[in-house]
């Protein structure tokens, strides 16, 4: 009996599909595998005179909670360590966050160490090794300095103020904001849901006049206070992001003298932002060499101190 018309073709198609699927498993699916145990480093800063009794360096606990809320763990990155140690840390973590603060962009140890990780991140990403870099407030300003080689900040006196965001035309399709729901983007554009605590800013004019910045970053949001300044930016070719505002404060800082919005949309901004950053870190496959090394490096080895009675942060981690 002869085979039914088309049966051979159908069997051939099935065989081809089976082979194709096998290749898909080998070559396509691994690229989609994500790291579900992301660890993000936070660069520590020198404490001021008020806090030096607790330790020489600190990290505000709100940054840690910000990352933990989206499923990441945190490793504090100390200052004044060797290049070999920084290289080891870089190969062990899945991203880095430069927090806000008040140190020099040009001469501080904070800036020097930030540059080390920034350069490592550029090299890694150029070689297909995904590694995100995030800057908040001072960290955002520092990214502009590390990229341009110049301090281009302008005095804006935008300290202790909440603002709505002026989105650029490219913002909605950006990596950072494309996952935000439309209703939240509208809230961000119409209500003061982002907190600002900075005296200096990167003006739109200075950005536009600098070819290195123009080539490297696209502007996602701006604000106006004395001058137009950049409040959110992301790199074109790299997973590098800067926000002049403080997404970590809305759910976790409660000083009543500070202009920190706590509305439902404001808190949602925090969590969508954290979710984005942590998902970026999930794309990195860096690992500690052993479980013991990982455990010893985590911030869980330190206890946050309540300082809210006398300081702008509710809690902070301290290090010597």
TrEMBL record:
Gene3D superfamilies linked to this entry: 3.40.50.880
Keyword list, A-Z: Hydrolase, Secreted, Signal
Organism superkingdom: Eukaryota
EC number: 3.4.19.9
Family of the protein in this entry: Belongs to the peptidase C26 family.
Xref: InterPro entries: Class_I_gatase-like, Pept_C26_g-glut_hydrolase, Peptidase_C26
Active-site residues, as the UniProt record annotates them: 137, 246
Protein's recorded name: folate gamma-glutamyl hydrolase
PROSITE patterns named in the record: GATASE_TYPE_1, PEPTIDASE_C26_GGH
Xref: Pfam families: Peptidase_C26 (PF07722)
Main location: secreted
A cellular component annotation (GO) from this entry: extracellular region
Keyword match Transit peptide: no
Catalytic activity from the UniProt record: (6S)-5,6,7,8-tetrahydrofolyl-(gamma-L-Glu)(n) + (n-1) H2O = (6S)-5,6,7,8-tetrahydrofolate + (n-1) L-glutamate
Protein localization: Secreted, Extracellular space
């Amino acid at each position: 009996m002869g085979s039914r018309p088309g049966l051979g073709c159908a069997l051939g198609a099935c065989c081809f599909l089976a082979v194709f699927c096998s290749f898909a498993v080998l070559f396509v699916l691994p690229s989609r595998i994500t790291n579900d145990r992301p660890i993000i480093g936070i660069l520590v800063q020198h404490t001021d005179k008020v806090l030096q009794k607790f330790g020489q360096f600190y990290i505000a606990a709100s940054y840690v909670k910000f990352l933990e809320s989206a499923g990441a763990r945190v490793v504090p990155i100390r200052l004044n360590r060797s290049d070999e140690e920084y290289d080891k840390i870089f190969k062990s973590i899945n991203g880095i966050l430069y927090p806000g603060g008040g140190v020099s962009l040009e001469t501080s140890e904070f800036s020097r160490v930030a540059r080390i990780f920034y350069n490592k991140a550029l090299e890694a990403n150029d070689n297909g090794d995904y590694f995100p870099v995030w800057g908040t407030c001072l960290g955002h300003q520092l990214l502009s300095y590390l990229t341009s080689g110049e301090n281009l900040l302008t005095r804006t006196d935008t300290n202790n103020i909440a603002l709505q965001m002026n989105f650029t035309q490219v913002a909605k399709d950006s990596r950072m904001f494309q996952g935000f729901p439309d209703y939240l983007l509208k809230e961000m554009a119409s209500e003061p849901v982002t907190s600002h605590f900075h005296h200096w800013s990167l003006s739109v004019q200075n950005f536009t006049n600098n070819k290195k910045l123009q080539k490297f970053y696209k502007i996602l949001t701006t604000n106006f206070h004395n001058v137009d300044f950049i409040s959110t930016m992301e790199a074109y070719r790299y997973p590098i992001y800067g926000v002049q505002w403080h997404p970590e404060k809305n759910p976790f800082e409660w000083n009543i003298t500070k202009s920190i919005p706590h509305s439902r949309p404001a808190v949602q901004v925090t969590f969508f932002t954290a979710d984005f950053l942590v998902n970026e870190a999930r794309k990195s496959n860096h690992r500690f060499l052993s479980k013991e090394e990982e455990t010893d490096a985590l911030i869980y080895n330190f206890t946050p101190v309540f300082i809210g009675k006398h300081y702008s942060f509710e809690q902070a981690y301290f290090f010597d």
